[in-house]
Amino acid sequence: MNTPFDPENLRYNDRGLVPAIAQDAASGEVLMMAWMNAEAVARTLETGRVTYWSRTRAAFWIKGETSGHVQELVSLRVDCDRDCLLMQVRQTGPACHTGRRSCFYTEVVDGAEVVLMAPEEGG
């Protein structure tokens, strides 16, 4: 059964935000997590360009707007509790502000942090 999607029907935290996970649509790699409010979700669906809410700048943030590292929306999924989003994206360049493909580049192994990937060239 298909029902119309309304971003207002998601379960937002007390700041009006929902976590949004970006996953590479082709490889399945988890790229990053950021926050969205209802308007950011709506803008993402309208434009196909992933738009987040920057908590530090208190402003909308279109991924790649200044860096060129664009996230193009392929699909948007809502979890069972309606309090988290999974976006499958086509990522241009690195997703992480550190220049790495993924924000999840550090693994904890036997109590130590291990860096799994270096920044991309030109990232």
State mean pLDDT (0 to 100 scale): 95
Name the helix and strand elements from N-terminus to C-terminus, one letter apiece: EEHEEEEEE
Strand order within the widest beta sheet: 2-1-6-5
Give the low-pLDDT segments: none
CATH architecture of the domain at 15-92: Roll
> Can you tell me the CATH class of the domain at 15-92?
Alpha Beta
Distance between the ends: 43 Å
Radius of gyration based on Cα positions: 15 Å
Strand content: 35-45%
**Individual helix count:** 1
Largest sheet, strands/sense/barrel: 4 strands, mixed
Number of DSSP E strands: 8
Q: Which class best fits the helix and strand makeup?
A: mainly beta
Helix content: under 10%
**What is the H level of CATH, i.e. the homologous superfamily of the domain at 15-92?**
Phosphoribosyl-AMP cyclohydrolase
Shape: globular
CATH topology of the domain at 15-92: Ubiquitin-like (UB roll)
